[in-house]
Amino acid sequence: MFLDLPVNLLYTIFVYSFIGIYTEIQFMIFSTLTESINYMHNLTLEHHYGIKATEANIALMSSIINLSGGVGFIISIFFLVPKSDLKGRKYLCVYSRFFLGFLSSLLQLGAAVFQASELYIIAQCIFCAQIPIRMFITALFICECAPDKNRGFASVALIICDVIGQVIMYSITSTTILGGPSTWFIFPLICTIASVALFMTTMKLPESPKWLVKMNRFDEAKKSILFYHGPECDLNTTLISMLKEKNLTQVDKISLSEIWKNDTLREALKLILAVNAFTMLSPIAVEKIYTVQIHNSAGFEITEVLNINLILSIIFIPTRFAGTLLIDYFGRRPVLFIAAALTNIKIWLMSIALSLAYFEGFSWLSKSLTIVSDSVAELIHGTGSYALMPLLVSELFPPSARTVVSQCILVLTTFSNIPTLFSFPIINSIFPPGFYIPFIFIQPIIVGYLYIYLPETKARAVCDIIDSFDQEVTSRRNTLQDERRPLIIRDRTMSLAHKRGSFLLSTSKSRALTYSYDQKMGAREWNNF
């Protein structure tokens, strides 16, 4: 699979994955440089406002930083993400991401040099504004550029280098190395340089060919296809497939309410929401932020926590690369269910470890179970399951629906994190194992739903995926209606379109083939393909 990857697509994935790890470094500054950040808060309160620094005041400053990041995240969802439909994927992935990344890291650098928390608060707002672009729009951009057979590889490979950022932060953020109050400026400085490097290496990349087809810019689309798919690709077949995908809907942009009114798109949205719930309603997202507190509850010191995370990150680096192959070799469903099984094991291990520590006191057994749980978490990341959500959005929805679905998922991700993030410190201070108990019951319900309804989408054209999914949903709905309707009054002449209740989605494969190419492109130009 790796050897079949077009060279230019491999280059695109590499620069976004490897150089783009500066966003992971920026993200981890707040969680790994706690002592230096608190020292900055101390100086800011005393020198700028004449307020004596207390634990409560410093905690308030940290909360303001989190709130600032949330504001930036929400602003990005509603004002930046929609630009990907209007101005293209490249506009956000290259230009907007550079501006936000460069400015936020520059402000973080200023905060480190001048020990000014105000600059860091502003920087956090701007930094978090680029997270939706990195999480979804960049992934959609790469998925839309990749050939069908490489789409899974491309989406997973985009995040494999995050572990390098984690290794960097866990290994040198100690106050005795580069994490001290006078030395932590090196991290935002590296991020500033890396943001410029990412911009310089991506500014000449072509736009997404699927977005260009959607905008009827066919000449540019042909060049983009040849760039990302390679000169040996079947240009005619690829372009026809993209036209079929574009013509799945009769409009260029559809709303969330229109998606919900359509049977097929509604079922696809339910699946995406279930995948999102599987990811968000698990302890792993919380553990990444509160890793020190969780390990303290199991009996570890701060230095031990950082060392354990560093060692495990290094040991399990090969699994990140294996995940890029698994998702296209085995498929989306097996990868998801392997991750689900590992998640369930991890939840039980951590529940037992914290229960032992709470009732019996700290012991080698509670610590050992915690380390095994951390190892399982690394294996979960290695499956590539965390790249499934943007990948499935690009595979289960037509181009006109992807941006609004991405917005919906990002909003739900934001608000679904709030209860777990804010409840953890309280539950952890009262009864640490209690935080994991709800997940024991929630996860099997979500996974069971996905096992029944999630289709396999590997190595298939998007138009074919949606067409077959539409047929499955229609068959399922008609069967349910027939079961509820008495046999004697069934209307066997009811049209399929009427049963579906919506003309929004046009899945007939002949629709794109009968499309008026003469009006859009010119018959002569089309025949020259």
UniProtKB/TrEMBL annotation:
PROSITE patterns named among the record's database cross-references: MFS
Keyword line: Membrane, Transmembrane, Transmembrane helix
Primary localisation category: membrane
One Gene Ontology CC term in the entry: membrane
Pfam families xref list: Sugar_tr (PF00083)
InterPro entries xrefs: GLUT, MFS_dom, MFS_sugar_transport-like, MFS_trans_sf
Subcellular location(s) per record: Membrane
Single GO molecular function: hexose transmembrane transporter activity
Domain Major facilitator superfamily (MFS) profile: 12-460
Transmembrane segments: 9-30, 58-82, 94-114, 120-141, 153-172, 184-205, 306-327, 334-359, 409-427, 433-452
Cross-referenced PANTHER family: MAJOR FACILITATOR SUPERFAMILY (MFS) PROFILE DOMAIN-CONTAINING PROTEIN, SOLUTE CARRIER FAMILY 2
Name of the protein described by the UniProt record: Major facilitator superfamily (MFS) profile domain-containing protein
Species, as recorded: Caenorhabditis angaria
